[in-house]
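[audit] Reproducing an earlier prediction to check determinism. Same input, same settings, fresh worker. If the tokens differ from the archived copy the diff job will pick it up downstream; this log only records the rerun itself.
[audit] input (379 residues):
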Amino acid sequence: MSAQVDFYELLGVERTADGATIKSAYRKLAMQCHPDKNPGCKESEAKFKAISHAYDCLKDDQKRAAYDRYGHAAFENGGPGGQGGFGGGAGFSDLGDIFETIFGGSGFGGGRGRQQQRRGADLRYDLEVSLEEAFTGKTQEISIEVSASCGECDGSGATPGTGTRACTTCGGHGQVRAQQGFFVVERTCPACHGAGKVIESPCRACRGEGRVDKPKTLSVNIPAGVDEGTRIRLTGEGEAGARGAPPGDLYIFVHLKRHRVFERDGTTLFCRAPVSFTTAALGGEIEVPGLDREVVKIKIPAGIQSGKQLRQRGAGMPALNSRGARGDMVVQIDVETPTRLSAKQKELLEQFRATETGDECPASSGFFSKLKEMWDDLG
């Protein structure tokens, strides 16, 4: 590819394009013709070098102004901005952006500076609570074993009175460069792990890590309305970072114990309530104790059938982070047939049966009427 091709034409942008447009065009082309995306393709390699050189010029205001005025001559024979060619390149930081986009790695990184301290790991704690505790909320203490900042060296990892020195492997930069073909890749220094410095005399208590395992007791606030899987975050209560790096977080995952009476779906409470067949026939009222120890009175309409659900508004679970809002309680009625009757009760039931006309139970009479019609049709 000729070195005299217009830089704007190479990148496919207008001469009036702003910096963001030029950068966007360059990144798109660079990803298309990057040598690692086109192994063994000399044309792609040449185009990649050309667009990198073009972008190196146009991204810099002074170089761009010189190019707009003098053209390619601005970078020949020691002219203004004379750092042409791929050696002046698109800059390691720009190539690093492209490398990350293509490969998802850190790749290039010149100019990015020393690797940031890595924060401590986040921790998980599974906490089981009863449905009553989820209803009212509570404060509970938990005990965990966690890496905490070393008290002996105050988290530095160095023996008190001693310090650190620059890493000789990376020269204190935290990264080392390796030549790969025509470009340079930077990687985290294997000696100092990106810190850029090494400890002269490691602390004996933590062996240079700056943290030690310690038991910790924490007070956790469980808000009213928590549900299965609710996550509570305690910032900074996770593992301490190595050598003074910030700590991670602790996540409390709430799990609900199985309840003897109620089942829960969001803010709705479900339960089953058996009622006598006389109450089902004549109607009445039953009392269901709520989780707040208040009695919930459920009115039973006369003639209710087994499986019917009755809803009591506002008698369910509180909504999480709400101000008094509550769901409903749903009671499923199970009509119970008596299994032990006294002689008097049997006599009364016999008298009732003698007066039955079939209209008392329309579902039953309808069913047997359909059976009779079926038999007549078959006969």
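[audit] rerun output stored. Observation attached for the diff report: The longest strand covers residues 138-149.
[audit] end
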